[in-house]
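Try it yourself: sequence plus PRP, in.
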Amino acid sequence: MSAQTPTHPALSKVLLDENTIKARIRELGAQITSDYAGRRLMVVGVLKGSVIFLADLLRTLGAELDVEVDFVAVSSYAGKNSTGAVRTLLDLRADPEGKDLLLVEDIVDTGLTLASLTETLRAHRPNSLEVCTLLDKPDCRKIPIQPKYVGFRIPNEFVIGYGLDYDERYRQLPVVGVMRT
Ligand code: PRP
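Structure, out:
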């Protein structure tokens, strides 16, 4: 991680700059490519926060991999706070039965979203189910759940950018930074 001068007035600090994010995603992509060789990988992006990470991660996966992409949408946050209630807004289109599912998240915070999602997806009887998250805030966990693939462990600060929002804004920032309060 490298701390930098903020590039946007909404940020008090840049936690992860573009090059740092890119390099780590390349490593994750190589690891996933090797782990899923010869399997039927179904990458499931969790909308909306994961879209930028997912798009960049997909492009680092080996061309030889058998990859399918689908999306789910859930929501539990209003402003900065998790409401605790995870609502399904969009379900999978494809049947995950017998496939190797990889849920892609932008951030795991309390773990409530992931716990709810993994329970729902396991009911569809995938061959396997793992999670890849760009960011992990282990200090905030309310449910003991640990993603297999983690880009960066970050402290308990409210972060925006690179897909992460505050009330639907700032997703387009190319860096991950701490929001100015
Ligand atoms: C965010 C994020 C994760 C979840 C993590 O989603 O994308 O899905 O919160 O928090 P948790 O571990 O405390 O459950 P959000 O509900 O804000 O929707 P969004 O992805 O559309 O921004």
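One thing you can check immediately is this: The radius of gyration is 16 Å.
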